[in-house]
Amino acid sequence: MNRAITAETSRAIAVLEKLREDITNCVYESGQFITESEISHKFDVSKTPAREALNCLCQEGLLVKIPRKGYIIKQLSFIELSNLCYFRGILECGAVEWAIRYASDSELGQIVELAHKKIDIDDEDFYNKYNDLNVSFHLSIAQLSKNTYLISALQGVLNQLRRDLAMDGRTNLGRSLDMHVQIAEALKKRDLEQARRITVDQIQVVEKRLYLH
After folding, report:
1. pLDDT tens across 21-50, in order?
2. By residue range, what is the domain housing residue 21?
3. Segment 112-156, tens digit of pLDDT
4. Which DSSP symbol is given to 82?
5. Dihedral angle at the C-alpha atoms of 174, 164, 99, 196, nearest 10 degrees?
């Protein structure tokens, strides 16, 4: 019995991780309708792990459940987008302050190296690679705080914004990656005022671009 439960749980986790990746990397369109049967068939699992994965994604804010019908890929409203960006700003400003105050020169040097990484906009796996790079950069700064609550909160915000950030990155790749470099260089100089200003500016600029989508 325990083995069966473990196997069922493992399948649900596998479906959850892959479906989350598909949603955040724009495999599905905002507002698209999906069902348990569709997910069950796509991942070759029973409806139970499919349902568990879908319900988890509802709790994460990536899906909206329509009772007795299915699930819709959530599209953030202007208010939700604004609130998430505002909260992101609070978290990331806190993260850069902790990094400047407590991170070693070596750790900040690693952030600079990460900031200079590039990706090809014509890569067929662009969304995956951009999201991985973007999230990795911002979370790497937060991880220097050693504050698990801050890290977890920022990861949750970035997950909810991930679809929108990926689409913005597609059309503004150069500017997005350049902001990474500017933040990293400010961190390296331990210039808190500049690091916070650039961080806030980046989030505000991205927010304005997302409003125009």
Report:
1. 888 777 888 889 999 999 999 999 988 899
2. 2-73
3. 999 999 999 888 888 888 888 999 999 999 999 999 999 999 998
4. H
5. 70
State the amino acid at position 105 in one-letter form. Answer: D
- Do residue 106 and residue 82 come from a single domain? yes
Residue at a domain's end among 49, 73, 97:
73
Inter-residue contact 150 to 142 (CB < 8 Å): yes
Query: 73, 105, 132: which is the final residue of a domain?
Result: 73
Q: Are 56 and 23 in contact (CB under 8 A)?
A: no
| Encoded tokens for 77 | 């409203």
Looking at the structure of the chain, the number of domains it has is 2
Q: How many CA atoms lie within 13 A of 81 on its CB side?
A: 20
Task: Write the DSSP string, 51-67.
Answer: HHHHHHHHHTTSEEEET
